[in-house]
Every structure is written in C-alpha cells, then in structure tokens.
C-alpha cells in the first residue's frame, strides 16, 4: 500500500482571469499556463516566480501542448485557431485553423509524427509535425469533444464527447473501433496507463475501463462536481484528480482507494474556486483554475508493508 503526504510549495499569482490550460516547459523547472488572459505565461517552478509572457493571443486559450523532443508549444484557442510557437526563439512558426468553434484538446502522435486537435464541432484535425500540413479531417462526434487520450503503445486513442460517449479509434487509419455511452453528462477528462482507460465527467463520476472494448471495471464518485483532470503519476501507481469542487484527490491506480484529499476543508491553503487543469512535474503537482492562481504541491509517496 502507499502513503501520500502533500504540502504546498508555492502559490503563483499574476493571471488576471481564470486559467484553463497547463503545459510542461522546455526547461525542467518551467511550465506554461493560459486561459482567459489572451496571453501565454511561463513560470519558473524552482524560484516560484513569473518568468515571461511567451506571446499574446487573440482569444481565450483552452489547450496547451509542448511537442515532445522540440521547442514548439501548440496553443488551441476559443476562436478555432491552433498556433505553433517556438518557445526558444519566441516566434510564431505556423498558424492553423479549424472550420468553426473552440479547440479544446491537442495531443501529439509521436510514432506517426502527427498532431491531433478537436473541439466544439466534434471534428478531429490531424497535421504533420514536420511541415504542419493538414493530413486528415474526420468527424468523431455530432457534438463537442473536450478530451483526447492516445494509449501508451500509440495504437489506439480515445475521445470523450459532450453526450457522455467515449469513442475508440485506431491510430493507423483513424477508423472507429467502438463507442460507448459511459457518462450521464459530458466527458471532461481521460487518462490511460498500460492496462486501463480512466474517464471523468461532469456527472462527478470516474470510470476505470477496459481499453479493448471500454467496458467498466470499476466506478466511483470522486468529487462533488465535474472531474476536470486525471493525472497519472510518472513513476508511482497512483493518480490525482482535480475538480470544480476545488479539491485535489490522490488515488491508488489499481484499487481506486483514496490516498489523500487536499482541500480547504482539510486545512490546506488550496484553491478557492474550480481547479481546471493540472500537470505532474516529477513529484510535484501543479494546479490552476478559476481563482487565477497556480499552485505547486510537493507530493511525497511512500510504499509501506500492509
């Protein structure tokens, strides 16, 4: 079994509006955040200080994604634009555009050297990482899709839509394998390890699903409101969830046993409004939300004999 201890390392202020997205930075101690400010901000986690405004943008930002092995940060916006910015040169390399609606999720398919984005119109766009040429465009859902999750082997990926459906696709040819209505309300977060797909929704539910057919293994109600993030720890078999209910919870990945509850009610200097995004940075968890704050949490995980 595991014992988890959490302490607040720093609170970073500077955003003037709610924060919707976090990405790792090019340097190991950096992260990028963005939201309703119409600007992407870089922070230094080591010093706990503001570093710079990377770029101004014309619309609210809902997705940030640093391309693995590169200095390119991909930015998805409410106006349907997808920008590729070189964070070293601080220059806009390329600007892509979806047909209509906001872009809510962006992921890279490293093996195929492709970038995939989806959002309000329920249509996926796939671009080449090498030249940003549009390669494919296909409809996944008749409604909004807020989240994408490629499985670890990068053979399949899952989408979650506003009607509570999860769609499983083959990455090789982007053909649908299966779909299943899992949630009673919109799917708001997806994550996967080598065994399972985890899904969180606006119905405050979390499901542990079989990857091959999306059948339910376990389910629970981890929060009072929307589950906005499911973050698998990079080395330990635990994951964190963040929610509109302002709390962070840490769970055993196999048993779904609750290991830690971090909230104002539990005496932590936690977020006072919805937590919209989070990212692991080694053994630190970085969270951000509607209170315009970025919080850095030290998370100590110990395995103990039961």
Distinctive features:
306 residues, WD40_rpt, 28 strands, four-stranded antiparallel beta sheet, repeat, 58% strand, mainly beta, WD40 repeat domain-containing protein, WD40/YVTN_repeat-like_dom_sf, WD40_repeat_dom_sf
Structural features, described:
The mean pLDDT is 97. The chain has no helices and 28 strands. The chain has a domain at 1-16 and 227-306. By secondary structure, it is mainly beta. The strands form seven sheets. Strands 1-28-27-26 form a four-stranded antiparallel beta sheet, with no helix packed on it. Strands 2-3-4-5 form a four-stranded antiparallel beta sheet, with no helix packed on it. It is 0% helix and 58% strand.
Helices and strands in order:
Layout: E1 2-12, E2 19-24, E3 30-35, E4 39-44, E5 49-56, E6 61-66, E7 72-77, E8 81-86, E9 91-97, E10 103-109, E11 114-119, E12 123-128, E13 134-139, E14 145-150, E15 156-161, E16 165-170, E17 175-181, E18 187-192, E19 196-201, E20 206-210, E21 216-220, E22 227-232, E23 238-243, E24 248-252, E25 258-262, E26 275-281, E27 284-289, E28 294-303
Antiparallel strand pairs: 1-28, 2-3, 3-4, 4-5, 6-7, 7-8, 8-9, 10-11, 11-12, 12-13, 14-15, 15-16, 16-17, 18-19, 19-20, 20-21, 22-23, 23-24, 24-25, 26-27, 27-28
- Record the strand order, biggest sheet: 1-28-27-26
Total strand count, please?
Answer: 28
User: Largest sheet at a glance?
Assistant: 4 strands, antiparallel
Strand content: over 45%
Structural class: mainly beta
Q: What's the overall geometry?
A: globular
Q: What is the helical fraction, as a range of percent? A: under 10%
What is the first-to-last residue Cα distance? 6 Å
Poorly predicted regions? none
Number of helices: 0
Rg for CA atoms: 18 Å
Task: Write the H/E string, N to C.
Answer: EEEEEEEEEEEEEEEEEEEEEEEEEEEE
Protein name: WD40 repeat domain-containing protein
Pfam families: WD40 (PF00400)
Organism: Sphingobacterium bambusae
Keywords: Repeat, WD repeat
């Amino acid at each position: 079994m595991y014992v988890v201890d959490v302490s607040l390392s720093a609170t970073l202020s500077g955003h003037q509006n709610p924060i919707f997205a976090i990405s790792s930075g090019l340097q190991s101690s950096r992260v990028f955040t963005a939201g309703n400010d119409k600007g992407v901000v870089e922070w230094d986690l080591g010093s706990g200080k503001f570093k710079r405004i990377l770029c101004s943008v014309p619309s609210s930002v809902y997705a940030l994604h640093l391309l693995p092995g590169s200095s390119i940060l991909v930015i998805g916006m409410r106006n349907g634009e997808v920008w590729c910015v070189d964070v070293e040169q601080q220059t806009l390399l390329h600007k892509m555009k979806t047909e209509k609606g906001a872009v809510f999720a962006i992921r890279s398919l490293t093996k195929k050297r492709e970038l995939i984005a989806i959002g309000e119109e329920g249509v996926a766009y796939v671009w080449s990482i090498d030249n940003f040429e549009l390669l494919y465009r296909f409809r996944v859902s008749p409604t909004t899709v807020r989240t994408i999750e490629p499985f670890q082997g990068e053979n399949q990926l899952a989408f979650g839509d506003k009607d509570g459906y999860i769609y499983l696709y083959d990455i090789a040819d982007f053909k649908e394998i299966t779909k299943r209505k899992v949630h009673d309300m919109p799917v708001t977060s997806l994550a996967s390890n080598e065994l399972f797909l985890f899904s969180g929704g606006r119905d405050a539910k979390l499901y542990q699903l079989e990857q091959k057919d999306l059948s339910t293994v376990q389910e629970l109600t981890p929060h009072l409101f929307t589950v906005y993030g499911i973050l698998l720890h990079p080395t330990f078999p635990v994951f964190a969830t963040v929610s509109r209910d302002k709390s962070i919870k840490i769970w055993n990945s196999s048993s779904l046993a609750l290991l830690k509850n971090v909230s104002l009610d539990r005496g932590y200097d936690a977020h006072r409004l919805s937590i919209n995004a989070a990212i692991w940075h080694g053994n630190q968890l970085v969270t951000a939300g509607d209170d315009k704050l970025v919080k850095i949490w030290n998370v100590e995980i110990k395995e103990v004999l039961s």
